[in-house]
Queue: 3 jobs
Job 1
Amino acid sequence: MTKTIAILGSTGSVGRSTLKVIEAMPEGFEIVLLAANRSRDALLEQCLRWQPKVAAIGSETDAVWLRQRLDARATTVVQGERELCDAIAELEADLVVSAIVGAAGLKPTMRAIRAGSHIGLANKESMVVAGAFMSQAAAETGITLLPIDSEHNALHQCLRGERHEEVARLILTASGGPFRTYSGDMDAITPEQALKHPTWDMGPKISIDSATMMNKGLEVIEAHFLFDFAPEDIAIVVHPQSIVHSMIETVDGSYKCQLGRTDMCDPIQYALTWPERRPSPFEGLDITQGLELQFFPADRERFPCIQLAYDAAGGGPAAPTVLNAANEVAVASFLEHRIRFTDIPRINRACLDRLGHTKAANLDDLFAIDEQTRVAAKDILQKLNTVSNLE
């Protein structure tokens, strides 16, 4: 049977890798929707190649531009979040790959869940912001959330065949980023330094999150909601080689880990073919080439964002939303050279203290809290800049 696929964020790294996998193993897949925010040239190229039923883009100007260049009989062009969500509901794709960066991916992903589509989840922010609501919606519609990011995909694989009560803890591996052994002044770290990840080639936002290790903190929150484990039963270990993508420890003291290449195509293929496994069209990991596997504890003092994430995971329903929104503002400001590297956790902590205990009964409450946090983060950022200038 042909599996219909929708890709939200098709022009980003995960979206391009998804198309690469389908290109390499085309039998059994049909692309029905491709969505991008601003990359109209790349989206046009993808549409001409894959002929999706629907193409979605952010602005009306870009939508008009695309309509002029695409055959409307083959591909309908829609514009903006509302029209994208309507298209998702109408198409009811078998699998929706959620790869829109940031909290912007939440509404389209929730609409896909409500439409009965399984989700290939590459957007961890959606699960961080509204994990409880997403998990509940998934249970109600009977769909499966299939994590695509390598760590949670590894956990998904390790947990196959294991009963929940047989697992003592989940263990997320982390490369440690560019500053694992850094001995310089953390206050003086520049965006250019922080963007140089030692293992992965990623976008700027996630590269900075890796440098602060906020990415691992967010992954703890995501794992908490995805797999229903308490935050204290989810550990982070630093594994510089990035070969073991994650592992579990069972109650009898055994460890079960997933090893693989540092290539997103592998977890994407797993999600595309689930619940089956199909032969990979790519060269695999050769374990006979002298693998070196090292594991170290994560340093919460050097990387305070880790502890902030555990605090948020154990807090109220609004706390993860607050942390994610504050972090997005702080990272964007750091990339613009407006704050110091060490100001990122300061802004995150201040916002979490101010708004983390806000009550949230539904998604609309979370969206409102997200906006309040962004306003608060910008206010805190301005005060930091004022103090810095006085110094």
Job 2
Amino acid sequence: MSSLVKVAAVHAAPVFLDRSATTAKAISILREAANAGAELVAFPETYIPAFPVWAALWAPIDNHDLFTLMAEQSVSLHGPEIAALRREARTLGVIVSMGISESSSASVGAIWNSNILIGSNGDILNHHRKLVPTFYEKLVWAPGDGAGLRVSSTSIGRIGNLICGENTNPLARYTLMAQAEQIHISSWPPMWPTRRPSSGGNFNNVAANRIRASAHSFEAKAYGIVTAGYMDASMRDFLVARDPSVVEVIDRTQRAASFFVDPTGEAVGDLLQDQEGIAYAEFDLTRCIEPKQFHDVVGYYNRFDVFDLTVNRKRLKPATFLDIADTPAASETDESNTLDDALSRSSNGGRLDA
């Protein structure tokens, strides 16, 4: 394993609420990044099919149709979108971190904010569901569980991921640190409206994400990939056409940025904010070792006799069917549970052969 790794953060818009077209766009981006030499390509939060920014703009009683569309366009772990991404990852020989809105085979209306890590041979290395939807996201997504709180061992290093506000959760972050994480991916939406401009506007979201990324990398002594969504003209036009009164909120809310930090928390590589594209950086993973001399918070620089953390990585299920072995064929739910059980049993960070 070479210590030098070229990585890519995708700063791109989806084809808004169209999972098939967005998957096709993602594959095109993967090919471009692979041609540029990237070995790991990280996409933003719920890139497929979109981030539900409307939950910040209108009351839920006005969003029933958008929730329905979001649920219909969400992605199954065993659906054609993930299958296409797995094939492309294997063909290109790249590792892919993809944010999806994940559908449930147990309910037509339950969806999760999820991340799928796909290996360079097309294996699903990890399947993480966001532990707690943040603020207005609670109107869209169900809470996840701890099954995906794992670091995956790959040919380019040990990779972990947390989604958006999870990067503010010290225990979730420590859970990944305690698995020898070397590359930490944090994925974000294209914008995060929290106030109307007339009432003081938003906090500095770019600065906040930089603080969170740098803090984690400094504490973990790991490299950080910050990959954020992008709002293109078609997404903006869709929202404004629905209700022109939101134009000020949309246009005066700061756009997110995609960038990278090193194990000391310093910026490295490209930064993208106001234009769509792919940001690149080169990581030298040997630089994750020396800072451990200063503070190894999962090694000597801790008091395990004072502090004790237990993490439940069991995949939560709505029901357990004891007669399932008697059925002619396993349902998608059972296939998903089999996958998650295999990930839990895996001894190499969550790798599962296709």
Job 3
Amino acid sequence: MYITKRTTLIFATVYVTLIVQETVATSPNIISRSEWGARAPKSRAPNLKLKPAPYVLIHHSTGSGCETQALCQLKVRQFQNEHMNTKGWSDIGYNFLVGEDGNVYEGRGWGKQGAHSIPFNKKSIGICIIGDYRKRTPNAMAVQAVANLIAQGVQNGEIKSDYKLLGHRQTWPTICPGDSLYTMIKSWPHWSERE
């Protein structure tokens, strides 16, 4: 039997999709702000207006991904510097970031308003998968980490059990989270065509 590149890609996509659809009880490995070397925020982030959060928004960072904790921590520090120094925000914009090392990096954290999608900052948890997903999807470790994080949020009362999952492009004019990742998340539980 001949296996083409296209067949291999289909198998990989199905595998990753199945991981997300499982009921997840595993806690994600969350790297705290102090562990990744976060700067102190300029001001404290306000609490979400709606809690538990009724929405989860998926983003990508563009640029290169990261497959080691050291590189992912460096990238998260760079995002924080860009958000604070260039964009003038009080802190990193996302609630959490996920690397292809399988770790979750704490941004603003649970229950806090992000700066990731203006109309949804007050009512969503923003999760950014580090990397550019216009032409490829994140690896299985990153996808599983996102699934574990969302499951933990539901279990801990931080995300509504009937939350809606959206790609950033559904809430703001952008290509984020990239065409390949956006196609993938349409198969994930709770993805919603409309807000």
